[in-house]
Design goal:
The complex is a heterodimer of chains A (about 375) and B (about 325). Chain A has about 375 residues and is of the alpha/beta class. Chain A has 14 helices and twelve strands. Chain A is about 35% helix and about 20% strand. An eight-stranded mixed β-sheet of chain A has the order 6-7-8-3-9-10-12-11, sandwiched between helices. In chain A, strands 2-1-4-5 form a four-stranded antiparallel β-sheet. In chain A, a hairpin with a 2-residue loop joins strand 1 and strand 2. Chain B starts with a helix and ends in a 14-residue tail after the last helix. Chain B is globular and about 85 Å long. The chains are: A alpha/beta (about 375), B mainly alpha (about 325).
């Protein structure tokens, strides 16, 4: 029975800069249900990492300021908690997997120590019992010779091994929610698939919900139940994995899907890119944040910011012309993007076929 | 570990050998000589020749060097030219005196600087941090001899709280209280010098580590902030600090030339100046050799400590990355 585990409501987090407060996250709402995997997809700078760090209340250590909103986790608003109270939740009920496993581990402690530390932080156990749990967890994440490995330091392990250690650390206390921030980005392609498989296995074993942050639509296709697409601090489209992949409604989502290199594409053909860059958050464009890069932008888009509105069941989108964009009837001035083929989402990216998709993207 | 140590010791011996050759050549290349000092300017060339012959100074330089090296290796630093006193009896007490003075200043500055620097790294640009910055600037900027004279002027001549100079009051040699009382001013001067560097260094090192990913990981694990700082960050921050401490070790024996002279402290620094003026080659060589040994030992010690705190440094083994 799925019920709501995490509910982010209208969350805003900003950073104080010389030019005033920059909102890295601007009114994001998102729900994660128990045992579910929700992927937050977007380019670098879209605010997806800051969102996850704010849920953990860790963005404050990097100078982030929570400007508003609520984060409900199992009936408690995490944003009203003190850091002391959060400490009891972090690692125990919500834990985190980071992007660069080599840097995420402390170089001067053995990996066994670092896993056992989580247990000792949250449970009243002896040193030996915690160590035994760490070794057991290393075995569970597929590290050969866990007894030996537990005594090694991070620099003695490969990147993939380190990520397994980080995953072991995140899951050793059986948290209800794991936030994985680009867990495979820094890894070799072959290792990426192994890590994703491992995450899925463990999710089933422990019934953990996963909030997966990624910029890789292929990863999202393989892992997600639901997908939220973020752009410049807001969610521009949200829906089930089928909804997003079969019929994307936001021009940005369409662009993201089209920029996945498919293996059936001909050699030498240029890869699709969304022109332009994500805007500077301190100087956001007027109206819709995506309009300078949007091939369908109209005067309305340049002046009025579209709200995130509900379309069909479970889908939300922030675009004035979502229905038209999805149906291929576009009213705006068309530049650049080949509108005829909004269905040009690579065929192999249908969600039921997610496995192929990520492998395809990888190769 | 043993293999590494042996290799490092062998390297050190080579370094020391080169230092002695270089120093020997350099000292002998300097103008003037002991015969001038001994016999005075009015002496006839013949008398100089005889004197030089008696002292073995007419022998070829390499031969003189080998003689000296042989004595040095047996712990015999020779005699002073002028009064024919065994150098051992002059030099070891001064080494001890310098160690007392510098050791006290060094330890004091460490005790203050490292915890304070670390604290400031967690509260940058707070009052405490700004005070430390000012102190560090003063420590870097004020010449030690001037600061020493200033302290003498105020605390000794005006207020009469502390003695002006020397190590003991005459007739009170061996009285620890008397020694400590004499140490206050010179130790203050020297400690300020050390403090400036260590304060800035420990703060910067810690600040850098606090921005590392693994610090965030520790917080994400639910580690209390105090542990994040003192367990996860500190061990890493100390690694570069240890290097600096190791490099400073020889200074503890080398002495503070200026401060010792200002406070008339009977240590190596003062001895070096006196003996240089008196053209006492043998004493200068002895001091140089002792300093060289300390430099080499300091580096060796820093390397070993380094390996103790940082598992990535594997002594004697080629990097252990696997899989």
């Amino acid at each position: 029975m799925a019920r709501t585990l995490l509910e982010i409501k209208d969350l805003s987090t900003g950073f104080i800069t010389e030019g005033g407060i920059v909102k890295a996250v601007d009114g994001v709402s998102l729900t994660v249900e128990t045992g579910q995997t929700v992927c937050v997809v977007g380019e670098s700078g879209s605010g997806k990492s800051v969102t996850s760090l704010t849920v953990m209340r860790l963005s404050e250590y990097d100078g982030g300021q929570i400007l508003g909103g609520e984060v409900w986790f199992q009936g408690e608003n995490l944003l009203t908690k003190s850091q002391k109270e959060m400490r009891r939740i972090r690692g125990k009920r919500i834990s985190m997997i980071f992007q660069e496993p080599m840097n995420a581990l402390n170089p001067v402690f053995t990996v066994g120590d670092q896993i056992a530390e989580v247990v000792r932080m949250h449970e009243r156990v002896t040193r030996d019992a915690a160590w035994a749990r760490a070794v057991e967890m290393l075995r569970l994440v597929g590290i050969p010779e866990p007894v030996l490995r537990a005594r090694q330091y991070p620099h003695e392990l490969s990147g993939g091994m380190c990520q397994r250690v980080v995953i072991a650390m995140a899951l050793v206390c059986h948290p209800e929610l794991v936030i994985a921030d680009e867990p495979t980005t820094a890894l070799d392609v072959t290792v990426q698939a192994q890590i994703l498989d491992l995450l899925r296995d463990l999710q089933q074993k422990f019934g953990t919900a996963i909030m997966l942050i990624t910029h890789d639509m292929g990863v999202a296709a393989e892992m997600a139940d639901r997908i939220a697409v973020m752009y410049a601090g807001i969610i521009v489209e949200e829906g089930t994995v089928e909804q997003i992949f079969e019929r994307p409604h936001h021009p940005y989502t369409i662009g993201l899907l089209k920029s996945i290199p498919g293996f059936e594409g001909e050699r030498g053909t240029e890869l699709y890119t969304i022109r332009g860059n994500i805007p500077n958050l301190a100087r956001l464009p007027s109206g819709c944040r995506f309009h300078p890069r949007c091939p369908f932008a109209t005067d309305r888009c340049r002046q009025e910011s579209p709200p995130l509105r509900k379309l069909d069941e479970g889908r939300k989108v922030a675009c004035w012309y979502a229905e038209d964009v999805a149906a291929g009837r576009v009213t705006g001035a068309v530049t650049g993007m080949d509108v005829e083929s909004t269905e040009a989402v690579p065929a192999e990216l249908s969600p039921g076929d997610g496995q192929t998709a990520v492998r395809g993207a990888a190769k | 570990m043993t293999e590494y140590l042996l290799r490092r010791i062998l390297q050190s011996i080579v370094v020391l050998f080169l230092v002695t050759v270089f120093m020997f050549a350099l000292v002998h290349a300097a103008p003037g000589g002991p015969t001038h000092v001994l016999l005075g300017p009015g002496m006839s060339p013949e008398a100089m020749k005889i004197q030089e012959h008696n002292m073995g100074l007419d022998q070829p330089l390499p031969l003189q060097y080998l003689h000296w090296l042989k004595d040095m290796l047996t712990g015999n630093f020779g005699y002073t030219f002028k009064n024919h006193i065994p150098i051992n009896t002059i030099i070891w007490p001064t080494v001890g005196n310098t160690l007392i003075l510098m050791g006290a200043a060094w330890v004091l500055s460490l005790i203050i600087a490292i915890p304070w620097g670390i604290y400031n790294s967690t509260k940058t640009y707070g009052i405490s941090d700004n005070v430390a910055t000012v102190i560090a600037y003063l420590g870097f900027a004020i010449p030690s001899f001037w600061f020493g004279i200033l302290l003498q002027e105020y605390f000794s001549l005006k207020l009469n709280w502390f003695p002006l100079s020397d190590m003991w009051t005459v007739g009170k040699q061996g009285d620890i209280g008397n020694l400590l009382w004499h140490m206050v001013l010179p130790v203050t001067v020297l400690a300020l010098g050390f403090l400036a560097g260590y304060l800035k260094y420990s703060r910067a090192s810690m600040l850098e580590v606090l921005h590392e990913d693994f610090v965030r990981t520790a917080r994400a694990k639910g580690v209390p902030e105090r542990w994040v700082i003192y367990r996860h960050a500190l061990r890493n921050a100390l690694i570069p600090v240890i290097t600096v401490l190791g490099l400073d070790l020889p200074v503890l024996v080398g002495g503070a030339l200026l401060t010792e002279n200002v406070f008339n402290w009977p240590g190596m620094g003062r001895e070096f100046v006196e003996m240089a003026l008196a053209r006492e080659y043998s004493v200068l060589m002895a001091i140089t050799v002792i300093t060289a040994v300390m430099v080499v030992l300091g580096n060796l010690l820093a390397d070993i400590l380094y390996a103790v705190v940082d598992p990535r440094v594997q002594l004697g083994k080629k990097g252990g990355a696997s899989v």
